[in-house]
Amino acid sequence: MNFLAHAWLSHHGSDDFLYGNLIADGVKGSDLSAWPASVADGIRHHRRTDTLVDGHPRTRAARGRAPEGRSRYAGIALDLVWDHFLSRLLANDPTQQALIQRCYRLLKVQQAPERLASMVPALVEQDWLTRYADFDFTCRAIAGIGQRLSGPNRLAELRPWLEADYVQLEADFRSLWPDMESALQAPGIRLP
């Protein structure tokens, strides 16, 4: 899961808890003593969510359908694809729009970790969380991550698979999402 899904799975908490979930990928190591307790709790929640998502049978099945030798990269792409489905399915939900604005407010006010500092302003200014509803935008974001990795852009190479497997990936997401809400005791949202 990426920013939007992590936000939904933690929106019931305080602003600091939500902020910790949003910036967790930019925080390395297990020593979180430099962070306020609620932010550290959010970082831990994000990491637990990642573990649950990565180990879920539907995520494992989706990765198994990825082109041979691309399973590792498929996991990165799927994190953004899950956000795509969530953003698309809830695009007209006023609660989602309020949550997105809350996330942007937090990301503007608080300093992002160094690893995310150059990306966060673009995320907010270009409204990525809303734009994930557009599959083409999501694929460009996936390819953008691939440009930051060493070697050939293996993430960009996944687009044909993501397009061909789109219907099954949505079914995977629709099965995965309620399981994550239940496992994390997050307030449920109704997917259309």
Automatic annotation (TrEMBL):
The keyword S-adenosyl-L-methionine is assigned to this record? no
Residues spanning the membrane: none
Pfam families on file: ACP_PD
Q: Which GO terms describe its biological process?
A: fatty acid biosynthetic process
Q: Which keywords does this chain's UniProt record carry?
A: Fatty acid biosynthesis, Fatty acid metabolism, Hydrolase, Lipid biosynthesis, Lipid metabolism
- InterPro entries given in the database record: ACP_PD
One GO molecular-function entry: [acyl-carrier-protein] phosphodiesterase activity
What is the annotated signal peptide range for this record? none
Q: Does the keyword Cell inner membrane apply?
A: no
- In Swiss-Prot or TrEMBL terms, this protein is called Acyl carrier protein phosphodiesterase
- In its UniProt entry, the species of origin is given as Onishia taeanensis
